[in-house]
Amino acid sequence: MKISELLKQVNRSISFEFFPPKTKEGEESLFKTIKELEHIKPTFVSVTYGAGGSTRDRTRNIVKKIHETTSLTVMAHLTCIGHTKQQLLEILQDYKNIGIQNILALRGDIPVNMEDFKIPEDGCKFANELVELIRENFKDWFSIGVAAYPEGHPESPNLERDVYYFKKKVDAGADFAITQMFFDNKYFYDYLELCEKAGINIPIIPGIMPITNFKQIRKFALMCGATIPEELVRKLEKVQDNNEEVEKIGIEFAVKQCEDLLKNGVKGLHFYTLNKSKATIEIYNQIKHLI
Ligand code: FAD
User: Fold this and answer.
1) In terms of residue numbers, what domain contains 90?
2) pLDDT (tens digit, 9 = 90+) per residue, 124-149?
3) Which of 82, 142, 209, 257 is the most core-located residue (most Cβ within 10 A)?
């Protein structure tokens, strides 16, 4: 089913993001996680796409397996910069053939260690062009999600410019957006105001990253420009070598963050699970009375 329709039906949406594992063991472990999370009856789940198309087949196969062997609605992430339009259309046609109706249309990160990397001549330079390509060729078959950045995209000179380009994705036909992780809800609320002023009226679902490993989260946050509040950093630093303690603080923090978001009327919560269920289930159990 299309996520655009589901978002109209549910009071709040709950969704989970996975990445395609590299090994058979990783895949078995992912499907164990999926089974555990299926009990929550999420509105949808999504599977990421490796930079430049590096997980093309793996993403497709995991999406297909979730679609065929579980009760879940699944969305495939697709990044455009590593492909020609022809390749993108082939990937999309294949998704249509297997019955997938949800795509997260992304540009993807420019590879840092490939100086000779070039976006193909006949390709899409930005996500709005991918959204256009999908709408032109597949009309309303797909519900299309796009990425949004409450603290601004790292390449963007300022938030206003970033919102201007976000609006282009909406005008091209995006149905909803999922945000980059953030840890201070103020950024999200200010961002919603900016988007409203810019005439963006699609659901913007906050992306929630439960912290389970301090060093890893510091690296991710640095890469995507997400600010970790000082107070949280101090707490985590004290216990950084004890993963159990880090996870406990991470869960406590995420519960408070989600409670505040839900009390402020968000349309849904999208959890970056990193293919693990424990933290997400614990957070969900503590906030489900507000959903
Ligand atoms: P765009 O919306 O195209 O924006 C990219 C940059 O260009 C921004 O700075 C924007 O302001 C600017 N810009 C946009 N349009 C124009 C234009 N027409 N002219 C000039 N400048 C423009 N990455 C992956 O590789 N795989 C994934 O599965 C994946 N999933 C993600 C899921 C979510 C929810 C989020 C938030 C991000 C995800 N990413 C993923 C990361 C994403 O690919 C990167 O952040 C990438 O650098 C930007 O992608 P985008 O679709 O936001 O690009």
Assistant:
1) 3-290
2) 999 999 999 999 999 999 999 999 99
3) 142
